[in-house]
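Practice problem: predict the structure.
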Amino acid sequence: MNTRAPHILGIAGSPRRHGNSDHLLDACLAGARAAGAETDLLVVSAAGIAPCRGCNLCSRNGHCVVRDGMQDVYPRLDAADAIVVASPVFFATVPAVLKALYDRCQPYWARRYVLGQPIEHRRPGALLLAGGGGDPYGHECAATTTRSVFAVLGLDYTAESAIRADLPSDTSAQPEALERAREIGEALARDAAGRLGSL
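Answer:
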């Protein structure tokens, strides 16, 4: 039986630091730590991730040929026992910096669907979104895109929280949103710990 503390990776998907989605992520990771997890923060905007070239070379061996910051991100994705993504909503989906990371997960797709490599074990995943109120198309595209990436990473989409935040500091006036994020973090830690215990 595995008795180590679960490792939770938080992915900050905004191109701007310390905004609403970052505040949600901070609360979520604090909740995970309170429940006994170790946490790791990945700031996508500082990771140096180029867009996917669409070259399909990863279909040969399941590895990306582009040498940039994503080479440091892959092992962090692999090492996580659970992952939570926090993002603003830009034109109904995730911003370009986060979408670049998502697209660079193509090697995982190639491993699953071209090379036939199975997912060794399932992990929990969650999404925290902060969007303005002026877009009539909502946030469903951001959630769908994230679900697609989670699927190839072997993540079960276990929780989602989406808030309306029109100003950079709107979360300061929404304590219930921060508490919900904290609860998601606690649940992720408990879920991940339970799955580790069954390995």
